[in-house]
């Protein structure tokens, strides 16, 4: 049963965060697992769009291939009386090999349930997706080709 309905396109934050808003309605559900699916671009796609990202120059002059991505997903919370004050709670951090080909879907299982998810039947949720290093960010398929974010 799908309990998530995105309310707006995502926002790219100046601190390398991608912020996604969605409605969470579980009034008729029992939450057993929380799994987030994210598409990661692969080596073939990156060679075409960002070829310089695939290689990393090392200090001694050797060139090494980049192999892993570290992706973090945070819950963003706003205090009810202080709308300008926000804080984040890391839900998951995961290391993934850069996929061969065009890319692949990866899953993130959220083990720590945010209390507001369970205490309210309907709420607008905000997740922030971030990579450990700036060069990893283009691997995340947050935008569609026409930048309309149609997958949301």
The description of the largest β-sheet is: 6 strands, antiparallel
Q: How confident is the prediction overall: mean pLDDT?
A: 74
Strand content: over 45%
Shape: elongated
- Total separate domains: 1
Give the % helix: under 10%
Poorly predicted residue ranges: 1-10, 146-152
Helix/sheet category? mainly beta
Specify Rg, calculated over alpha carbons.
17 Å
Task: Give a description of the structure.
The protein has helices at residues 43-49, 115-119; strands spanning 4-6, 11-12, 17-25, 35-41, 55-57, 63-65, 68-79, 82-97, 103-109, 122-131. The strands form 3 sheets. Strands 1, 2, 3, 7, 8 and 10 form a 6-stranded antiparallel β-sheet that branches. The protein has one domain. A hairpin with a 5-residue loop joins β5 and β6. It is mainly beta. It is elongated. Helices cover 8% and strands 47% of the residues. The protein contains 2 helices and 10 strands.
Which key phrases capture this entry?
152 residues, mainly beta, 6-stranded antiparallel β-sheet, 47% strand, disordered N terminus, disordered C terminus, Taz1-interacting factor 1
Give me the secondary-structure topology.
Elements: E1 4-6, E2 11-12, E3 17-25, E4 35-41, H1 43-49, E5 55-57, E6 63-65, E7 68-79, E8 82-97, E9 103-109, H2 115-119, E10 122-131
Antiparallel strand pairs: 1-3, 2-3, 3-10, 4-9, 5-6, 7-8, 7-10
Protein name: Taz1-interacting factor 1
Organism: Zeugodacus cucurbitae
Short description:
The protein is mainly β and 152 residues long. Helices cover 8% and strands 47% of the residues.
């Amino acid at each position: 049963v799908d309990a998530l309905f995105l309310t707006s396109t995502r926002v790219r934050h100046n601190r390398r965060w991608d912020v996604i808003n969605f409605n969470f309605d579980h009034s008729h559900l029992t939450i057993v697992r929380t799994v987030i699916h994210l598409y990661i671009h692969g080596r073939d796609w990156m060679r075409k769009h960002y070829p310089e990202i695939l290689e990393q120059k090392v200090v001694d002059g050797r060139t090494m291939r980049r192999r892993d991505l570290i992706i973090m997903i945070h819950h963003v919370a706003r205090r009810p009386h202080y709308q300008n004050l926000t804080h984040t709670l890391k839900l998951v951090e995961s290391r993934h090999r850069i996929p061969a080909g065009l890319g692949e879907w990866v899953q993130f299982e959220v083990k720590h349930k945010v209390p507001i998810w369970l205490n309210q039947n309907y709420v607008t949720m905000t997740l922030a997706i971030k990579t450990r290093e700036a060069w990893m960010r283009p691997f995340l398929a947050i935008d569609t080709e026409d930048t309309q974010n149609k997958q949301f």
